[in-house]
């Protein structure tokens, strides 16, 4: 969905600005995904900054060859991604390697790449809050808080926990999760009890089973779970629902597009913000 703010002219709004600085763009993203919320090991923020003037932004979950080609062909000068392109320390730049090759192409094409990874995951109103709302949970609270402000306000959280409108069996809940998250499949282990309280973490959240159990959750919905964690969760009385990393975090793209479009419109910027069509699920199921 385009965010070219064409309504500005139709409504007679004046002083519409058509260029956003790289610093201003970063500040707008950080209103939604503040860098202070990110883990220290993460690489949220600008991975690549080639220029200062931003007119057209492409939003994606991952930067790959297809997404970069889409950006170049579509005239996008900036890519906003959830997962960092540059995550681990890079000692060599080879044009035939997946990560460094894409980074070199981006630089040659003059394309900025900004990443909102754990800055969005850990934002109190970020990924996991949206995931909880998609699952129609009520009484939503953070699962864990790992950074507080001096005033006692949570700055960085991980996961959320809330209540279903009515208890349901695991099989019924699995179908609900699949439908609400538009997942291709849901892997789960049912227990002989109904589900009332649900914890959720986008991405690889299987390691938070203990926190889910301590919060009284009957189930944990997440994107990725290690093999051994299934048995550990069963022993703790927590039913795991694994939907796939992509399907647990795809909400990033539509949410970022909508929030940035709304904010840019309010600030009278005529900047295009669009969801990538090339950024698709990186696997198939049978």
Determine the strand fraction and express it as a percent band: 15-25%
In round numbers, the mean pLDDT is: 94
Q: Report the biggest beta sheet as strand number plus sense, adding barrel if it closes.
A: 6 strands, mixed
The CATH H-level superfamily of the largest domain is NIF3 (NGG1p interacting factor 3)-like
Structural class: alpha/beta
- Rg, please? 20 Å
From the N-terminal CA to the C-terminal CA, the straight-line distance is 30 Å
Structural shape? globular
Helix coverage percent:
25-40%
Spatially, the strands of the biggest sheet line up as: 7-8-10-11-12-9
CATH topology of the largest domain: Udp-n-acetylmuramoylalanyl-d-glutamate--2,6- Diaminopimelate Ligase, Chain: A, domain 1
**Unreliable runs, pLDDT <50, ≥5 residues?**
1-10
Q: What count of domains describes the coordinates?
A: 2
Level-1 CATH class name of the largest domain: Alpha Beta
Total beta strand runs: 13
Per CATH, which architecture of the largest domain? Answer: 3-Layer(aba) Sandwich
Number of helices: 11
